[in-house]
Amino acid sequence: MTAQHNLEQNSKLPLIDLRSDTVTRPTPAMREAMFEAEVGDDVFGEDPTITKLEETAAERTGKDAALFVSSGTMANLVSLLSQTRAGDELLVGDRAHIVRAEAGGVSRLGGVLATTLPNQPDGGLDPELIPAAVRPDDMHQPRTTLLALENTHNFCGGTVVSLERTQEIADAAREHGLRVHLDGARIFNAAAASGHSVAELAGPADSVAFCLSKGLGAPVGSLICGDEAFIAEARRTRKLVGGGMRQAGIIAAAGLVALDQMVDRLHDDHANARQLARGLAELGFNINPESVQTNIVIVQLDTSNDPTPSPKLQAQLKQIGVLVTTPDRAKIRLVTHADLSSEDCAEALRRMAEAEVGPAA
Ligand SMILES: Cc1ncc(COP(=O)(O)O)c(C=O)c1O
Q1: Strand ranges (DSSP E) for 61-161?
Q2: pLDDT tens, 60-100?
Q3: Residue 161: its pLDDT value, please?
Q4: Atom 13 of ligand 1 has which residue's CA nearest to it?
Q5: How far is the CA of 127 from the centre of ligand 1 (A)?
Q6: Which of 200, 229, 261 is the last residue of a domain?
Q7: Fewer Cβ neighbours under 10 Å: the N or C end of the chain?
Q8: What CATH code is carried by the domain that includes residue 223?
């Protein structure tokens, strides 16, 4: 039986969706909390469920205050715009979600120049590059005012930037008068993997953003956390970009359940990602399972015969009901999440073996 025949035969199999941890559906407890949520007009500051979520988020991140926004992209945008002026410069990793996957919002909407520094394999930046990257006070140049980090680091493969590294980078930035923003879309994964609390990991940053709608499984929402003055400014910026929401306690209620019930299980996602990586290595893919730290597996494909192999592999996987994304044309990304079990991961690997989908497929 040929591999192609197998692919066609299996095409009606139930989907195993490894595209992202954003695909999770709200749990029954979330739906119930949403149904019961007490709400009010949050633009008037009158939604008790949002207020509770913001207070909880501030507490969990160890910051003074928090602001609920609709998405991780909006959380970053509002955070960056609230700490810069048009014409300022942001220092950010070259593989950061902010520069690679947020439609250039900080430049288009904020008029901010984003200058990239090379991301290190752990997703961090080399603190020694920061002094030279900060512009001198010179009328020809933009003002370098902000540095952004990401933890875990999505496009580096869900890597954890250690607390020590985060502190070193933040210290170097602060020494030159920069503020520090942390894109912590998956900071709860970083905490689970590192053994540090979210508050510890966020400690070196002035502002931190995290998502409820990724590993934590809520349907919508992100939080921005920082000191009172920053959050007041962020509230204004959120209004500016049209992000003020009214009876949004309906969605915040699910976020409270996420923070209460979905954090401790993140270890399962991490174990499942390791399991996937081990299976992929057994199938001949170039992946070191030990390099997988959280819930994201990125596989670098062989480009010796085809410089852009990922779309073809993605299509082959889709035919056996396994959905993945392609961070670039020579990589595939698999993400584990609350709606996938260890058995689902085993089944994905079993289908790949049976259909002979491998690195040279
Ligand atoms: C690291 C990181 N930051 C921000 C975002 C943006 O989140 P959203 O898709 O909710 O806008 C993502 C989304 O995957 C992400 O991975």
Answers
A1: 65-69, 88-93, 113-117, 143-150
A2: 999 999 999 999 999 999 999 999 999 999 999 999 999 99
A3: 98
A4: 72
A5: 24
A6: 261
A7: N
A8: 3.40.640.10
Tell how far CA 358 is from the center of its chain.
28
* DSSP helix/strand/coil, 121: coil
Ligand 1 binding pocket (C-beta < 6 A) is 71-73, 76, 97, 150, 154, 183, 185, 211, 213
Q: In this structure, which residue's CA is closest to atom 5 in ligand 1?
A: 72
- Give DSSP secondary structure letters for 237-285: HHHHTT---SSTHHHHHHHHHHHHHSSTTHHHHHHHHHHHHHHHHHTT-
**Is the CB of residue 355 less than 8 Å from the CB of residue 7?**
yes
Pocket probe mutation, ligand 1, options 76, 77, 78, 97, max atoms within 8 Å of Cβ: 97
Q: How far apart are CA 335 and CA 163, in angstroms?
A: 24
| Res 328: pLDDT | 92
Confidence at residue 11, expressed as pLDDT on a 0 to 100 scale: 62
In the reported structure, the alpha carbon of residue 104 is separated from the centroid of ligand 1 by a whole-number distance in angstroms of: 13
Asked if residue 83 is part of any domain, the answer here is yes
- Over residues 135-178, the pLDDT tens digits come to 999 999 999 999 999 999 999 999 999 999 999 999 999 999 99
Question: 36 and 9, same structural domain?
Answer: no
Q: Which pLDDT value is given to residue 7?
A: 47
52, 81: one domain? yes
Q: How far is the CA of 73 from the centre of ligand 1 (A)?
A: 6
Q: Which atom of ligand 1 is nearest to 186's Cα?
A: 1
**Are 151 and 63 members of one domain?**
yes
> Ligand 1 centre from 151 Cα, in Å?
11
Here the CATH number for the domain that contains residue 18 is 3.90.1150.10
Full domain range(s) for residue 225: 28-261
The rounded distance, in Å, linking the Cα atoms of 103 and 101 is 6
Q: Give the pLDDT score at 10.
A: 55
Structure-block tokens of residue 45 = 């500051």
| Domain co-membership, 211 together with 344 | no
Residue 361 lies in a domain: no
Q: What is the pTM of this model?
A: 0.96
* pLDDT less than 70: residues of the chain: 1-11, 361
Structurally, the chain folds into a number of domains equal to 2
pLDDT at position 146: 98
- Please check whether residues 127 and 217 belong to one and the same domain: yes
277 shares its domain with 217: no
